[in-house]
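Annotated sample (chain length 166).
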Amino acid sequence: MDKIILTTKLSLEDYIKMNYHLLYRKWAVRFMTGIGSFMVLSLLFTFDSYIEFPWLQLLLGLFFIIGQPILVYIYARKNYNTNKRISESISYTFDKDTIQITGESFDSKFTWDKIYRVTESKNWILIWQNPQVANVVPKRDFQEEELQAFKNMISLHSKVKNKLRK
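Output written by the structure step:
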């Protein structure tokens, strides 16, 4: 395939799931969740040995386990509702030299050498413009042969960091 054209639209649910994915792929966040779990579980097993109940340990543990996901949900929902570009219908055109991204209120064109990285998760293809900003393309919008052609297209560009499944 010389050119792949996809049209997609992220739902609020998609956006929230993507934010969770991006948060929990970081080892530090997973580590802090583990620490929080350890803090709460240690309270359960040593409850009788305390003279005064360690409220700070309980609150910190619960924040790491429950608070972070709640904050991610609240901020993702707020961001989705206030930034209309996220919920726009977006058209992606991929060819061997460029990526064109067209929304209802914007139009961008990049050459592949300006792309920082391309990664794949179970449900998404992430096209990273830099280490902090990624365009999210749901894999459900690719047909099987288009997804393979997209992967082949990226493999032609050695400067693009490619973390795609074979």
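Annotation: The first strand starts at residue 3 and ends at 9.
Annotation: The longest helix spans residues 55-82.
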